[in-house]
Amino acid sequence: MKQIVTFFLSCLLVACTNPALNKLEQKVVIEEGKSAFYDTLGLLEENTEVIAIVTPTATMTNEFVMNKAEKVVEVGATLTEVKVDKVYKGEISEKITIKESYYLNTEEEELAIYDGYIPMREGEKYLVFMSMQPENTHPALEGSYYIVGTTVGAIPITTEGRAKNATFYKDTFGRDDYGRGLLFEIQTEAIEKYLIE
């Protein structure tokens, strides 16, 4: 199911370092993804291989593969290189690539975002819950990590960022599986557990 929204994009929505997304106005399509729904921090943690603080670097790559015969998107994602600042669970390299749940559909000239995901921004720190792409993934995504639980699994670290993120998720995109309250609750619990000493 798609929801189409047209509005001026700010740096809140897209990372300004992704050249494919540097237009002032974009047609934005919100697509319902297939990500699992986790309504507690405990479930999110159980289904995550790596929990870490990361900082996105300037390199972002739009991955878009269209099966023109069947008129379906085979791959739609943005690959973001990040520096790993601290690891709480699992083992991981100092620099990795994370598959984010948004992409520029070059066929339709629209920005597609799954489940109201909010792209990470260069230079900001995030607490992320992630796992390695499965072995049978599309070749364009091999070797990357994906964010578990989509929006709930990539948490801006500042209090202002968390509040802004939770509000933006519900009010702009309307999908309310988490709802602003539950999303903010999980984010707050994660911040308190991993960052407040």
Short overview:
With 197 residues, the protein is of the alpha+beta class. The protein contains three helices and ten strands.
Characterize the structure shown.
With 197 residues, this protein is of the alpha+beta class. 19% of the residues lie in helices and 40% in strands. It has three helices and ten strands, in the order E-E-H-E-E-E-E-E-E-E-E-H-H. The protein has helices at 41-46, 159-173, 179-195, and strands spanning 2-8, 25-31, 50-67, 72-89, 95-100, 102-105, 110-114, 126-132, 145-147, 154-156. The strands form two sheets. A five-stranded mixed barrel has the order 3-4-5-9-8. Strands 1-2-7-6 form a four-stranded mixed sheet, with no helix packed on it. Strand 4 (72-89) and strand 5 form a beta hairpin. It is globular. It starts with a strand and ends with a helix.
Describe the structure using short key phrases:
five-stranded mixed barrel; four-stranded mixed β-sheet; alpha+beta; 3 helices; 197 residues; disordered N terminus
- Per DSSP E runs of 2 or more residues, the count of β-strands stands at 10
How are the strands of the biggest sheet laid out side by side?
3-4-5-9-8
Oligomeric status: single chain
Report helical residue fraction.
10-25%
Helical stretch count?
3
- What's the gyration radius in Å? 16 Å
Low-confidence stretches: 1-16, 166-176
Beta percentage is: 35-45%
The secondary-structure class comes to: alpha+beta
**Mean pLDDT across every amino acid position:** 75
**Major sheet summary line:** 5 strands, mixed, barrel
Secondary-structure element pattern, one letter each: EEHEEEEEEEEHH
| Rough outline | globular
Report the span from N to C terminus. 42 Å
